[in-house]
Design a protein that fits this description.
The complex is a heterodimer. By secondary structure, chain A is of the alpha/beta class. Chain A has nine helices and 16 strands. In chain A, helix 6 links the parallel strand 12 and strand 13. Helices cover 41% and strands 14% of the residues of chain B. Classes of the chains: A alpha/beta, B alpha/beta. Bound molecules: iron/sulfur cluster (2 copies).
């Protein structure tokens, strides 16, 4: 597991600080260069102040864009150099309470859009930044403003925005038209073509109806959408139906991400009830994938270890669990497919997981 | 609840195929048709129709937007010019039976691009508003003018972010320099191979020494470059049709998994002799037999093989936005995204337009490298580029999947306003779509297995072959 936070010594700032750490070179605006390496720590020059970072491996931080909040004893690695998995968590609030949520909502909100804006400007060329929460669109004025400002200064940056799709409305159309549609992908979950099942899963009455309308709104405005469906006992048998529904009523959706359950947050709490052992029965998932393929909707399977998937469907599996939360099992060390395989989440409960895993 | 207009056609066993303008389809029976016509659809009917994208509650219903989206995505938009078919020479070192009009003897003069044409063509490329370009060298035999090929390729590589080249060669006589040219990673080979040695020989190479040269070049092309770089197309004569199994076997032996069956496109006098009407039935009989044999092959082997055009039709039936094949799309814009440049620098909208013009029946050129596109003439040709307003197509159950072929109509009938169902293009496509839907609704597991392969998925799903009971 790769740490996303790294300990620092107390640092005297009164507003959030965003800075790019650099091993060498003089510090220029926005960057901090190494001035001293010690045993288990490294010191950077931040505009004349010394920042002490407690890490045995300072090289891993080279090129990272980090955030330091006043009074905090750690820094946040916002953009890890060379990693395709960089996400700005813009809020922890949410209006849904999905049974598999990996980031259960909290009531309190701290607005960090300004430091995020600075961080984006410091990011490497052409990088993709994930925007996540909570529900980012609860702060949609701030979010839209952030996106427009970044796109003006850094038109090369792409965004992958995870939202529950509940908070768009017709009044957003002028802004949707101004956003760079080629560089934004909205990742929006839909769990079932049955309104009741979907609403039960997200624990919000009427969510499906709103979602349906907003998917159409985004589509009509030319936005690109990745539909995201987590497999649960509650919805797995409706996957073929969902596939039919999506390809019939939402033809503007560009990708469909079908995901296995992530054992963290509510997903961990509800694991026993909701984990569907697809290594035992892949049929309902296969049906969904086939229908989407035939209709021309590109489908990707996330969080499915290759050996749990029948051979013909392995080509749809992505090796995708973020590097910082990925692990393999002892049997994996003999596996010829390990380089292509997504592996397991750090917190994967082996005894209650897939019943059939084994080296290929 | 409102139902989008349905069109229907009787299929086998008296079942009716219903389709809408966004390409949705299902099968049902006479009783449903009566309920539909009489306006007495049941709740179950509505529920089925909405679920499958044929009905909506009101305009705020996602089913309404879904239909509009699918309808819109079936429209082929005009796209930027980025694809050229070049005829740097009309000369050829073979005398294939059906190619009289589009070739000149190897030693003839006055049938090649001159320096002026080359210069003007390259000049026109530099004015293009595109970062990517695709050039297809045809002929005659383009390898007779390797010098021109080299120069065009060099220019494109230097002036476009991405450039791709296809050399359509008969692989008859390939010099070492030509092999080297063909070996580049951005250069692909497309050759004719009729699938059966005797047929290929009798139609093309004629003499056995000539034929064995071709054979060894073909082998070399495949072994040196592989199927990712080399494709082979058969051209079949309806009066001398090969045995499907032999064709399939010889393509599989070369490692090819896609076979595009094309019949000889006779022009001029030969067209009168081999009238379409007399040959269509024989061709479809062969075509069905061929596909049956493919289905059998795919049942018994893992290396599935497709008939390219059938796969294209199936994709156009199930999907929206499938515009990648210029022979069938709607509207089929002419003279916009690709152009043919003849040996004398004339522009044509398609290769067939070039051949029709060559026999002097009609002049379908739309400008030349010197004076540019003749926009007025191109507009005239495009006045019937889509089937949206065709008085026959609008009633046709296959309209959403089909597309017009103005050039074929002009070349056969000299006009475009004859009843659709009397045209070769329409008769042929009606037969092909009938066949495609037979396959789609087939309960034969062998057919279903092949459908999965052709549609790019591990398993075909009959949920998509909906039936309203
Ligand atoms: S054995 Fe491990 S590495 Fe191999 S496919 Fe299974 S989970 Fe992946
Ligand atoms: S050309 Fe014929 S088959 Fe095609 S849409 Fe028109 S009427 Fe139908």
């Amino acid at each position: 597991m790769i740490p996303l936070r790294v300990a620092i010594d107390p640092f005297p700032i009164s507003v959030p600080l965003v800075i790019r750490l650099q091993n060498d070179g003089p510090s220029e605006e926005g960057t901090a260069g190494v001035i001293h390496r010690g045993q288990g720590f490294v010191e950077y020059d931040v505009c004349g102040l010394s920042l002490t970072v407690r890490t045995p491996d300072p090289d891993a931080l080279d090129g990272d864009v980090v955030l330091i909040l006043p009074g905090q004893r750690s820094l946040h690695r916002l953009i890890r150099n060379g990693s395709p998995h960089n996400t700005f968590l813009v809020t922890e609030q949410c209006d849904q309470k999905c049974v598999m949520c990996s980031q259960p909502p909290k009531a309190h909100h701290v607005d960090l859009f300004d430091p995020f804006y600075e961080a984006a400007l410091l990011g490497p060329y052409g990088t993709t930044i994930g925007i996540s929460g909570g529900e980012p669109m609860l702060h949609k004025e701030r979010l839209f403003d952030f996106l427009l400002r970044v796109q003006e200064r850094r038109p090369d940056i792409e965004f992958h925005i995870l939202t529950n799709g509940q908070h768009f409305d017709k009044n957003d159309e002028p802004i949707l038209q101004r956003l760079d549609r080629a560089r934004i992908l909205w990742g929006i979950p839909c769990y079932s073509a049955s309104p009741e099942t979907h609403d039960d899963i997200v624990v919000k009455a009427g969510a499906f109806e709103t979602l349906e309308r907003n998917l159409a709104l985004l589509g009509k405005n030319g936005h690109r959408i990745e539909l995201r469906t987590v497999i649960l006992n509650a919805n797995v048998n409706g996957l073929a139906d969902l596939s039919l529904y999506v390809t019939t009523h939402h033809p503007h959706i560009s990708f469909w991400a079908i995901m296995q359950l992530e054992p963290i947050g509510y997903g961990r709490q509800n694991w026993g009830r909701e984990f569907f052992d697809s290594s035992q029965n892949f049929d309902p998932i296969a049906a969904g994938v086939d229908i989407a393929n035939i209709r021309g909707l590109e489908t990707v399977l996330y969080n499915f270890p290759l050996c749990t998937v029948p051979e013909p469907y392995r080509r749809f599996c992505a090796n995708s669990i973020s590097d910082w939360k990925q692990k393999y099992l002892p049997t994996c060390s003999d596996c010829s497919a390990i380089n292509r395989c997504t592996g397991f989440f750090e917190w994967y409960p082996e005894e209650r997981g897939f019943s059939s895993v084994g080296a290929l | 609840m409102k139902v989008w207009p349905l069109k229907f056609r009787e299929h086998d066993h008296g079942e009716l195929l219903f389709t809408n303008e966004a390409g949705g389809f299902f099968r049902s029976d006479q009783r449903f048709l009566e309920r539909y016509v009489d306006g007495i659809l049941t709740d179950d009917d509505f529920e089925f129709l909405r679920r499958h994208g044929h009905a909506y509650r009101d305009t705020s219903d996602a089913a309404f937007d879904g239909f509009c989206g699918r309808w819109a995505r079936r429209i082929n938009p005009v796209s930027k010019l980025n694809y050229f078919i070049l005829i740097p020479t009309l000369r050829c070192n073979l005398t294939c039976d059906y190619c009289q009009v589009s070739r000149a003897p190897e030693t003839a003069s006055g049938f090649d691009w001159n320096d002026e044409i080359l210069r003007q063509f390259l000049g026109s490329l530099s004015k293009l508003d595109t970062e990517t370009i695709k050039i297809e060298f045809q002929g005659g035999e383009p390898l007779l003018r390797l010098d021109i090929l080299e120069e065009v390729r060099e220019f494109c590589r230097n002036n476009f972010r991405q450039a791709e080249f296809v050399v359509c060669t008969n692989l008859q006589s390939v010099s070492e320099e030509a092999w080297e040219f063909l070996g580049a990673a951005d250069t692909f080979i497309s050759t004719s191979f009729d699938g059966v040695e005797e047929v290929h020989r009798s139609q093309r190479t004629k003499e056995s020494v000539v034929h064995s040269e071709f054979r060894s070049n073909l082998q070399r092309a495949f072994s040196e470059f592989g199927t990712a770089k080399v494709s082979a197309l058969p051209t079949l004569d309806v009066h001398n049709l090969p045995d499907p199994d032999t064709v399939i076997r010889s393509f599989v032996e070369l490692g090819l998994r896609s076979i595009y069956l094309r019949r000889v496109n006779y022009q001029g006098f030969a067209r009168k002799r081999y009238d379409f009407r007399d040959t269509q039935e024989a061709w479809m009989e062969f075509y069905r037999r061929f596909v049956d044999r493919l289905v059998e092959h795919n049942w018994e082997n893992d290396d599935a093989v497709e008939e390219y055009y059938l796969s294209h039709l199936l994709r156009r039936i199930f999907r929206t936005g499938v515009q990648n094949h210029v022979d069938l799309r709607n509207p089929n814009w002419l003279g916009y995204d690709y152009l043919v440049v003849d040996f004398d620098g004339q522009y044509y909208p398609t290769d067939e337009a070039r051949m029709v013009s060559r026999i002097g029946r009609l002049d379908l050129s739309i400008g030349d490298v010197d004076s540019g596109i003749d926009a007025r003439k191109r507009d005239v040709l495009n006045s019937a580029a889509s089937n949206f307003e065709d008085p026959d197509c609008i009633h046709c159950v296959y309209q959403a999947y089909c597309g017009p072929d103005v050039i074929d109509d002009l070349s056969r009938y000299g006009r475009i306003d004859i009843p659709r169902h009397e045209t070769a293009h329409c008769q042929h496509h009606t037969a092909l779509f009938d066949f495609a839907f037979e396959l789609i609704y087939s309960e034969d597991p062998k057919v279903q297995r092949s459908l999965g392969h052709w549609l790019g998925t591990p398993k075909y799903r009959t949920e998509l072959a909906a039936r309203l009971k």
